[in-house]
Amino acid sequence: xxxxxxxxxxxxxxxxxxxxxxxxxxxxxxxxxxxxxxxxxxxxxxxxxxxxxxxxxxxxxxxxxxxxxxxxxxxxxxxxxxxxxxxxxxxxxxxxxxxxxxxxxxxxxxxxxxxxxxxxxxxxxx
Amino acid sequence: xxxxxxxxxxxxxxxxxxxxxxxxxxxxxxxxxxxxxxxxxxxxxxxxxxxxxxxxxxxxxxxxxxxxxxxxxxxxxxxxxxxxxxxxxxxxxxxxxxxxxxxxxxxxxxxxxxxxxxxxxxxxxxxxxxxxxxxxxxxxxxxxxxxxxxxxxxxxxxxxxxxxxxxxxxxxxxxxxxxxxxxxxxxxxxxxxxxxxxxxxxxxxxxxxxxxxxxxxxxxxxxxxxxxxxxxxxxxxxxxxxxxxxxxxxxxxxxxxxxxxxxxxxxxxxxxxxxxxxxxxxxxxxxxxxxxxxxxxxxxxxxxxxxxxxxxxxxxxxxxxxxxxxxxxxx
Lengths: 126, 331
Fold this sequence. Notes:
The complex is a heterodimer.
Chain A: H1 7-22, H2 28-66, H3 72-85, H4 93-110, H5 115-125
Chain B: H1 4-18, E1 22-31, E2 37-46, E3 49-58, H2 73-85, E4 93-96, E5 106-110, H3 118-123, H4 128-145, H5 161-175, H6 180-191, E6 200-202, E7 211-214, E8 217-221, E9 228-230, H7 233-240, H8 259-268, H9 276-302, H10 309-314, H11 318-329
Antiparallel strand pairs in B: 1-2, 2-3, 3-5, 4-5, 6-9, 7-8
Helix pairs in contact in B: 4-8, 5-9, 6-9, 6-11, 7-9, 9-11
């Protein structure tokens, strides 16, 4: 185990440095790319924070749907194969709930302000 | 890559070669935007009058193997001329570059004053009146696009709805990465393929960024780089896709207009009655297509074709398409 600073603390310091000290010095396309780079670091930060728990619950749902445990990547590949083959479909309430939860989790890490997430939450709550 | 200075000399010579009465250029500058093409603005003196112009040209080098659907810039210029003849507002093509110009592939067109940044169009007060009228205008414009003469343009693929779905499916499957919602969306599209209908010109990327907008509404449609002959209703679905509403989701057309106005404009423009179910099909396709486009962009970086923080980050927008698909077909 590493000592402090933690990965999250390092990331936070780098983000602050780039945002406060570097970004104001940049122009045009480089400034645009810095904005994108900072958004990218936001994604990494949210993934560090939220990713492990999301992955655990995703794997638990997959285990329930597929009837066996495994590595999350393998389970997802199997789910995909079965959806493609048509042996699992959206009419299955477990599959539907899993896809909604998994996709919402992805959006919460990648683009939490995306309008589609709001609509998905409105739908789930009604 | 040529230096900017050399480029200015070459472009000046090209302008004088192709435009009678032109005496030289000034204020050449590269505009931002455009991942696969370069866009430059400059001024030319033509018969003593200052004229602002745009150069659109390829980046040179090997074509990007992940993107194979772009038509050549010469064809893009030809399509803009055909669009103009059909009554579609487009910048006026001045000339197409040739080998003697030594500037690569590209063309020069008139500069159309206006805004292409969606957030400004959707928020600034000066576009309030434009926002109210643009859905109808876009409908009228798309009805005209569908009447464009496409004869003799070999590069223009003829793509049925089923072929369009398969084209995108092949790209997706080549990535070999599981996206459960995308799998289900393909199933849905296969089961709901539109039948009948005419084959006609489709712009292929009809959305914010590719329209130049003024306070008086839509002034020009640009970026004719991924057109095809297919179901012309595809363009109506794409402009309604949630990702192009920029957060104003209750206005399905680009975050500013209603489907009713879009369809009324299409009918008024001579396109005939619009089947909303057909538009819905292409909206679902559009959400899926957005996901695949994000995956393609990120692959361009990951496969080493173009090192870019912008391209690689777009990969994390693929789930926008997924959540929109669930909202559309998961109910």
